[in-house]
Amino acid sequence: MPVTLSPRFSLTVGILATLSLAAIIHILVIFSIPHNVQHSAFDNVAKHGPDRQFNLLPDVKPGLEALPDLDPAMKHAACRFELADGPVLFDASIPAPFWSIGLFNSAGETVYSLNNRTAGAERLSMLVLTTEQLSILRENPPENLEDLIVIETGQISGFALLRAYVPHLSKAEEIDGALMAASCGTI
Amino acid sequence: MTDELMRPGNAGDSETDWYEDKQPSVLRPYRSHPLRTLTAVCLVIVLASLLGISSAYLIIEREQPLDAETIGQWRAYPKAGTDEADPYSVAIYTRGAVVPLASGEGLALVAREDNAGHLLDPTCIYRLAGQTPAARLWTLTAVDGHGRLVETLPGRAHLVSHNLLRKIDGTFEVTAARNPHSGNWLPLASDAHAGDGLRFVLRLYDAPVTTGAALDGVSVPLIERLGCP
Question: Could you tell me if B74 and B110 lie in one domain?
């Protein structure tokens, strides 16, 4: 004879099973979203120009936002890089009262960030490389290694977003120029 | 043993016969049909999928990461967009392809409600008064319920701390409305409907509060609704 249950008991079991299964599906859905995103920030940055150079993003205007959640008071430039192609040297001199740079990995997570006060100098010079590249570099260090902010990371691909505050429209062109002149190249 | 003898009409050919007839209905074995079991299992799976997927969708669509620091009506998500983020913020941020404001850059505070707990409405007039946490620069932006910028009458939808009129004690008062107002005016959407939603985003740049722990006890602007059409 099969094991049998009363209708009320089977209803309780059914509800419990539904809830547990729903919880499992809920968790699976939440965890699967990051792997099934069609346009990540990393992909969107690529639309604005080639990798390994700072590409000026269009001004933040309604309906024309290059990336979501950007500040309309700022001008932005983005650069995508692959550390497999060699270390990345960021170099910029931006005549703005405030600027900041954020380094993000391909999943859009912050790796490193600084602003013009924490940079300690008016000029941004920052070197991003992997641990292996750093040990190779240490054998034959370039002269200016002491002046660089060196960031060792395990993230192979990522992008940098440079934000510069435009205090007045008359400064906009100068800041545009500085952002476009910012370099994101090799040593 | 005496039980069997007392039972009338007991043919005695099999145990199941009397068992099925004489047991009270509560104790009588309940034989499930295979088709019935299959239907039940299918129902459980369908219901669970619906429940699981819709609850996940609702949480993600609300675009409110769980790990929030609340100060007054303002919320900050200092951990969102870092490797310490909870799975919900990871899902929300990657789905929206949002590039977060990193901790070395600043901190974004978002308000979705006024001080009475009502959801912000772009057709209303609001007063934001008080002080902000210490920051070298801050900007205040009005966006819609999905975080997008909207068209306004003067073409801007933000205010910057550098160009702000302040009182002698350093506090300020901002009027957020569709039509021009004297003093600090934060323009709201020119053709808004109540259902579009409204959020105020206060971005503090180079602020000591970015660590999240320092958020206790800082003063933030109070959001008051002055009137609605």
Answer: yes
> Could you say which residues from 124 to 183 on chain B have a Cβ atom under 8 Å away from some Cβ of chain A?
136-137, 139, 141, 147-151, 156-158, 160, 162
Alpha-carbon gap: A118 to the closest alpha carbon of chain B (Å): 8
Distance CA B119, CA A177 (A): 42
**CB-based contact, B33 to chain A, within 8 Å:** no
pLDDT in tens, A75-134: 999 999 999 888 999 999 999 999 999 999 988 889 999 998 888 778 889 999 998 988
Judge if B51 and B75 occupy the same domain: no
What is the SS3 string spanning chain B?
CHHHHHCCCCCCCCHHHHHHHHCCCCCCCCCCCHHHHHHHHHHHHHHHHHHHHHHHHHHHHCCCCCCCEEECCEEECCCCCCCCCCHHHHHHHHHCCCCCCCCCCEEEEEECECCCCCECCCCCEEEEEECCCCCCEEEEEEECCCCCCCCECCCCCEEEHHHCCECCCCCEEEEEECCCCCCEEEECECCCCHHHCCEEEEEEECCHHHHCHHHCCCCCCEEEEEECC
pLDDT band at B153 (very low <50, low <70, confident <90, very high): very high
Domain that holds residue B25: 1-61
How many domains, chain B? 2
CB contacts under 8 A, A 75-94 vs B, are: none
Q: Across the A/B interface, how many CB contacts are shorter than 8 Å?
A: 188
What does the pLDDT read at residue B214?
65
The interface pTM score, or ipTM, of the predicted complex is 0.85
Confidence at residue B97, expressed as pLDDT on a 0 to 100 scale: 87
Query: Which DSSP helix (H) or strand (E) runs through A90?
Result: strand A88-93
